[in-house]
Write a structure and sequence with these properties.
Layout lengths: L23 H10 L4 E4 L8 H11 L2 E11 L15 E8 L2 H16 L7 E2 L1 H6 L4 E4 L6 H7 L3 H15 L4 E6 L4 H17 L3 E4 L10 H12 L21 H7 L4 H13 L19
Helix pairs in contact: 1-2, 5-6, 5-7
């Protein structure tokens, strides 16, 4: 089997604080070593690494794909909550497709911290609908609302949500995100996602939700989680990832994992090719003030 074309679209760096264990320079190096022509950065709730990604990717001959894995409030971002999902938040993967999308993504991130912060920097669907232009959306990991609905056997509600996201971002810019990470409930979510794809023709795309560079780095990332949650590693009841598979997989490794769905690998290239973003440095951008008189 020929090594497929593929790029990673769901990636966390050290800027996913106390969660991601990747340095951007190492990710760019890994892309070059495996002939992956582009690299996304989708840190949790922030865009701290956007400029570093752009500059290091550009210098390294890799196309930068600037994104963010945003936290979506279950109800309003202005309501204060402490529970994840339920009355808390879910995840959604966003990528800036052009300058307008980049501006919108920065706006969403800023609003999340300034107006929506409660446990996490959150936005809501109302704000997202106001700033969706120029953004490509992937349906997200197991923490997404779509997958949570599937896991609760609420496929009709999930289909309604998927239709809403497709209408919001456009049929060419919303993708169902498949991951094969060894987590049992992920398999159920994938089955539901594929049925939804067959029923609606919403395209599927393969990702790996990268949190560390190499397989053996999973232990370092697990220590970060312990620091994050204030737990000890030997605490059997603590929060942990039920997989050691969230590393930077090569094209060959991803090709083997998705050998039955090669279109989902090619789709990563389609997403990357849609993105056309150039950031200027060394120029002045004065703020606009609206006069009240």
């Amino acid at each position: 089997m020929a090594t497929p074309d593929f790029v990673h679209l769901h990636v966390h760096s050290e800027y996913s604080l106390l969660d991601g264990a990747n340095r951007i320079s190492n990710l760019v190096k890994a892309c070059n070593e495996d002939s992956q022509p582009a690299l996304a950065l989708t840190d949790h709730g922030n865009m701290y690494g956007a400029v570093e990604l752009y500059q290091k990717c550009t210098a390294g001959g890799v196309k930068p794909l600037i994104g963010c894995e945003v936290y979506i409030a279950k109800q309003s971002m202005h309501e204060k909550h402490s529970k994840r999902n339920g009355n808390g938040y879910s995840h959604l993967t966003l990528l800036a497709r052009n300058q307008q999308g980049y501006q919108n993504l920065m706006r969403l991130s800023s609003e999340a911290f300034v107006k929506g912060y409660s446990v996490r920097p959150r936005i809501d669907m109302d704000l997202l609908s106001q700033h969706a232009e120029g953004i490509t959306c992937l349906s997200g990991c197991l923490g997404s609302e779509l997958n949570q609905l599937f896991l609760q056997d609420k496929e009709a509600e999930a289909a309604h949500l998927a239709a809403r996201l497709r209408d919001l971002f456009g049929p060419d810019h919303f993708w169902l995100e498949l991951q094969r990470n060894g987590i049992e409930i992920q398999d159920k979510a994938n089955e539901c996602l594929y049925r939804l794809h067959q029923a609606t023709n919403i395209p599927i795309v393969a990702t790996n939700d990268i949190h560390y560079l190499r397989h053996e780095d999973c232990q370092a990332q697990d220590i970060l989680l312990c620091i994050n949650t204030g737990a000890k590693r030997d605490d059997e009841k603590r929060f942990r990832f039920d997989t050691d598979s969230l590393f930077f997989k090569t094209r060959a490794e991803m090709g083997h994992m998705f050998r039955d769905l090669p279109s989902s690998l090619r789709a990563t290239m389609d997403v990357a090719e849609q993105i056309d973003l150039n950031i200027e440095f060394g120029t002045y951008h004065m703020p606009e003030f609206v006069s009240e008189t």
